[in-house]
């Protein structure tokens, strides 16, 4: 069974799912001290997706920051959930996961245009043609940068910059801070704010219904997101960048996916 899980993980993650979100899905977002923090890695759409195993060849970083410690996520290849650890102490745990690079090809030009428009990067098609690139056989490299906030015990603490190429940083603690005015977040690329960036907010209510709203960052890369008690959230933002193909058929674009998950207690 473990070999089958490994094979399926490789096959699915190698499939052309670049247009799908990637996130860390906590089994529970509030964990008692001494209990295991468990979370799945998911790929899908509209806050629904398949769970994948712990597969070290498929990620560059997988770690948890808690207090002054940064702990590597440990596991055996094929383990599911991908994260199953008991953490020392209590506070706000910040889980970070960075995938390896993947590539995807688009069957037709319109599919590529729909993707970049959907992610708020409508400038890309015009720039693609201005670079003298063909509409045929468009290829893209993509990497995912996921974070999750989980309260261990009292959940005290704050989100932090984890040094990811792109990341979403929460400006308040959803487990202990008052959020009547919303949850402020900042979108970063190489440590710098991403102004005018589209941010997707997926919300799952107590009955399981999912809604999605679009938001945009200000000049400092910040936006305040509306949140409600008793809901789980996935914040998602995608950046498209030009890359120079080293050879014919190589990707001419890269997409960098940042996500952040958390819950707001009742």
From TrEMBL:
Domain of life: Bacteria
Keyword Signal: yes
Signal sequence segment: 1-19
Keywords: Signal
UniProt xrefs under Pfam families: DUF4198
Protein's recorded name: Uncharacterized protein DUF4198
Species of the source: Allosediminivita pacifica
Taxonomic placement: Bacteria, Pseudomonadati, Pseudomonadota, Alphaproteobacteria, Rhodobacterales
